[in-house]
User: Which sequence fits this backbone?
DNA sequence: TCCAACAGTAGGAGTACACCAATGATTGGC
DNA sequence: GCCAATCATTGGTGTACTCCTACTGTTGGA
């Protein structure tokens, strides 16, 4: 009875938006159980991936407003997951580093993410998943620069 | 420290969420230029796809709160895109029908949606698009019933 | 005939998100 | 040494969403 109008399901982008939002919501839910939000995961991952960097860089990389990045790092810093210290070379900047606990937390959260992914992708076989990943990656990379700030 | 830093793009679900949200935002933008929102499109499509029906049915089908559906239909009705008349068989219900103008509007909006889709999927070849559509459709159908109300 | 259940409506609450403006500290170029 | 530009931070704004509650009609069964 709750069938979606065929008009909409014929749009690939509709399916993309829906399934994406579903995955996102599921992960957000599990992160919330650990008092985390999606941005926290993204931020930790960015730090692990690109090393210590200034808040400005971090904000730009994640396309977050600098003021929001400050708040995010307050939260992560308060839990000891990141360390903030003034850049001795330029004391305006704050160098953000992932702590040991930060690495550990990131690993945990990524495990959660993998679990969610396993659920969401369960209808697909392993080779199909790789295929999907490849296709999406190409879309993602072409996603390009209409940079409004945005989602984690 | 053998660990390669976990990257977000290695998560298929991350790509899914990102690209989906991108597509969604692009469409929303174009609809906004015509004073429409995504729910309007979904609602019109549902009416076209499943024929005249009560507001309750419509709300359930789209997973919108009934009170919000009332507001949506106010807007669509005010523009002459849907007609609302009491069901003579059960005067509590209101039967919602797509008008001529409603069909026309739906066609226009679907054209917009197709245009957006063409942009978003531009990195893929035609057979790849069909492939992607098939995979997503399977994810979508398995998406299943954890029905919180939600997104258009 | 009465009443519990249901359909639709109006108004508003709560939340999450992206954004902005003002402030203080610091820098580099002149 | 001075000044415009830069970085971080604070506090607050606007806007969508989603949800809830109370109220009006209406129905079908006891």
Assistant:
């Amino acid at each position: 009875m709750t069938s979606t109008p065929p008009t909409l399901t014929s749009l690939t982008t509709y399916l993309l938006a829906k399934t994406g939002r579903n995955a996102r919501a599921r992960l957000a839910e599990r992160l919330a159980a650990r008092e985390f939000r999606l941005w926290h995961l993204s931020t930790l991952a960015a730090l692990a991936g690109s090393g210590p960097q200034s808040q400005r860089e971090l904000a730009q990389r994640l396309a977050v407003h600098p003021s929001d990045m400050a708040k995010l790092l307050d939260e992560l810093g308060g839990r000891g997951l990141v360390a903030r210290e003034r850049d001795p070379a330029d004391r305006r900047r704050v160098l953000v580093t992932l702590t040991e606990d930060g690495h550990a937390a990131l690993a945990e959260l990524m495990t959660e993410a993998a679990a969610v992914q396993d659920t969401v992708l369960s209808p697909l076989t392993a080779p199909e998943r790789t295929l999907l990943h490849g296709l999406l990656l190409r879309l993602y990379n072409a996603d390009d620069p209409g940079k409004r700030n945005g989602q984690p």
Observations:
- The first helix of chain B runs from residue 12 to 33.
- Chain B touches chain A through 61 residues (CB under 8 Å).
- Chain B has a mean pLDDT of 90.
